[in-house]
Amino acid sequence: MNRPLNIAQFDRRTSMPLRRGVIAALDVGTAKVACLIGEHSVDGSGQSGLVRISGLGHHVSEGVVAGQVVDMRAAEDSIRAAVHAAERMAGLEVRDVVIGVSSGLLTSRMVEADVPLLGQKVTQEHMAMALRGAHEDFWSADTEILHAIPVGYGIDDHYGIVDPRGMQGEKLKVTMHMVAIPAGPARNLLTCIEQCHLRCEKLVVTPYASALSTLMQDEIDLGVLHLDMGAGTTSASVFHQGDVIFTCVVPVGGRHITTDIAQGLNVSMTTAERIKTLYGSALATPSGEREQFEVPVMGGDHQTLPRSELTKIIRPRLEETFEMIQTKLTQSGFANMAGGRVVLTGGAAQLNGARELAHTILEKQARLGSPMRLTGLPESATGPAFSACAGLLTYAGRNHADAVLKEGRAAGAFGWLGNWLRRNF
Q1: pLDDT, tens digit, for every residue of 229-264?
Q2: What is the DSSP-derived secondary structure letter of residue 120?
Q3: Which residues pair with 202 in a beta bridge?
Q4: Which of 78, 193, 229, 281 could be stapled to 352 by a disulfide with Cβ–Cβ 3.0 to 4.6 Å?
């Protein structure tokens, strides 16, 4: 029988919880690789505090397209440069990192499992059996399960139970949100990390991490759609009643808008990126015909175009992005649980008119999200473009109800379940 991907073969160590103290996050994206080093503080009562940033490094990403490594050596060089810059700023050496993953082939599904109780009280063994059943129903040999998040327990016909241990009934039920990516891309990324003399402490899907750093608690509780608009992909997360219940990724991002501009205006990618940043907008305005911008052409000359021509290039691609997300939500069945609010983050979300267009197409109130829950973040990293990396630190600094289902990382058939139960109850 085939085995699921064993992360232990890359980091060569047994399972251990994300520690307090110094933590490092690495976001390997299409446009940039970002590394943050922080320290997770604990207040006087022993409760979790904020993460204080001590180091930041980022570098142009090479060898990564739509969340997947396509050139191992180029990706390694980008990772090394970003980590080295963060280490130099923090004055320490990084060994273990929490890594963000944003694959266009991400899979998200709700899985239910039940265990007969026959009138007995719920024990840890009953919960282990239910969680194991959900895992086995979802797992396949060619995928790597990154998250198994319990979103609800039930006993017989009673649901919404937070901790079922000690309760009696005929049947225990558990609903899990399972998130996985193909094993191949995961192996490639982890090999790059190992070649950089780093160890993967945890793989986290970036739509989940980014949301943790930018959403307010009321949004998480009442229902919200979160969009992380990166360079190569746009990822979405749906939160409802305090839990993330759906995630997805579409292979369209800010880099595609830049490419459209380069092709439409017949300029280089570098020039197209500059034009997009300075003059780009998804909104047509009455002054769009009057406002002009210069476009360099071959031979060193320039031509002048109205900004409305740029809007005609940008708007269709953004509309396509939001429509693809809407289609994914509709197909998932969770569209009505996303509430009436959408939060945009990521570098591409800063494009003028993105928020207004999201409001129009997704029919939700829209706002731009930036990293929260961190202190000491350098001014250059306080914008939406660093939300995913900041969220990885937020994730590492919190005690998540999240089972890390990796064979070989804990002893015994139910080792990982025991670790999960001890960590979350």
Answers
A1: 999 899 999 999 888 999 999 999 999 999 999 999
A2: P
A3: 98
A4: 281
Q: Give the pLDDT mean for 140-150.
A: 84
Half-sphere exposure of 153 (CA within 13 A, CB side): 19
Residue 416 and residue 57 in contact, taking contact as beta carbons nearer than 8 Å: no
Give the confidence band of 412 by pLDDT, cuts at 50, 70, 90. very low
Reading across the β-sheet that carries 32-42, which strands appear in turn?
A: 199-205, 96-101, 21-28, 32-42, 48-60, 374-375
SS (H, E, C) 28-42: ECCCEEEEEEEEEEE
The whole-angstrom separation of Cα 139 and Cα 188 is 20
Domains in the chain, ordered, with CATH?
1-111+182-216+372-425 (3.30.420.40), 112-181 (3.30.1490.110), 217-370 (3.30.420.40)
The amino acid at 4: P
- Distance of alpha carbon 423 from alpha carbon 8, whole angstroms: 20
Binned at pLDDT 50, 70 and 90, residue 30 comes out as: confident
Angle of CA points 348, 354, 358, to nearest 5°: 120
Give, in degrees to the nearest 5, the angle at Cα 183 between 125 and 240: 60
Q: What dihedral do alpha carbons 372, 383, 185, 177 form, nearest 10°?
A: 30
Q: Collapsing DSSP states into helix, strand and coil, what is residue 91?
A: coil
Give first-to-last CA distance, the chain, whole Å. 33
Total number of residues shown for the chain: 425
Q: What is this structure's pTM?
A: 0.83
Encoded tokens for 231: 């360079």
- pLDDT at residue 43 in the model: 53
